[in-house]
Amino acid sequence: MASETDKDDNGLLAMRGRSQCVPADPAAEHSPATLAAGAVLWRDKKIALIHRPHYDDWSLPKGKVDPGESLAVTARREILEETGLEVRLGSLLGKVTYPVRSRTKVVYYWNAEVLGGEFKKNSEVDELRWVTVEEARELLSYKLDRKVLDKAAKRQPTTTRIIYVRHARAHDRRNWAGDDNKRPLDRKGRRQAEALAQMIAGFYPTKVYSAKPDRCVATAEPIARELGVKVKVDREFGDAAENPRARFDELLTPGVKVVVSQGDTMPKIIAQLAAESGLDVGEPKVKKAGVWVLSFNKNKLKSADYLVSPLPLK
After folding, report:
1. What does the H/E/C string look like for the chain?
2. Which residues are in the Nudix hydrolase domain (predicted)?
3. pLDDT average, residue stretch 120-134
4. I want to staple 168 with a disulfide (CB 3.0 to 4.6 A). Which of 37, 115, 189, 308 is the partner?
5. % of the chain residues with pLDDT over 90
């Protein structure tokens, strides 16, 4: 029988605070690392635990990154493969690390809402149970998983989520003689835009908004195409806006929305929202194609998670 006893004996939890980050290279500080992603699955105030016959344990759904994936894409795929359930990703809980032979296992966890699907026994999972948080604490095989669960329970609930995206990389301004609003995405930017569409799909947004510059619209279009919606273009979401905060606040109604914006506007709005809610995000960084997942309850920011890059990890 396989074992993951090192998960408790030598595992570490990095989940402090309500603002988490997935760096561009999550494996860098743990080399050699094995990257994985999973989630705490919620339905009607209960969570799903899985039994893995290979380990004879009860744990949270998770799995390793496949080629061509970001961590958010991995979490959604692995949950579907192990449980048969389609989920909407929510707030990022953080990560756990523990040794597995000569490598370090690095697992990022999200909170996630179950939207549908049905469990069927498979080669990895032979049973799934819906349990209360208290029952889950008793059933889980690892102390480290119980700590993840405790963090997840604290991060519930939210009513509104804004997926706040900086446009992908465009051609260099210094080499562009025309109208700056017409400056297009470069080759890497087009790759970033397609990767954003795959990553953001797991949050199941229903509306996509964009600032007016072509590079913003070109970033938003693959996302909208993946979701089957149209992009709503509005200059008030970009650096040319007269009152970008007022326009942003109009979106704080229940649901999940995407806003593609620019590098001057985004840090200011994120900093304002965080200060008003007593949330420590430091000095918000926003790299091109970077994503801030902003979760609200009654118009108050509850968590702010930064996904630095949508590009595949391998």
Report:
1. CCCCCHHHHCCEEECCCCCCEECCCCCHHHCCEEEEEEEEEEECCEEEEEEECCCCEEECCEEECCCCCCHHHHHHHHHHHHHCEEEEEEEEEEEEEEEECCEEEEEEEEEEEEEEECCCCCCCCCEEEEECHHHHHHHCCCHHHHHHHHHHHHCCCCCEEEEEEECCCECCHHHCCCCHHHCCECHHHHHHHHHHHHHHHCCCCCEEEECCCHHHHHHHHHHHHHHCCCEEECHHHCCCCCCHHHHHHCCCCCEEEEEEECCCHHHHHHHHHHHHHCCCCCCCCCCCCCEEEEEEECCEEEEEEEECCCCCCC
2. 32-153
3. 97
4. 189
5. 91
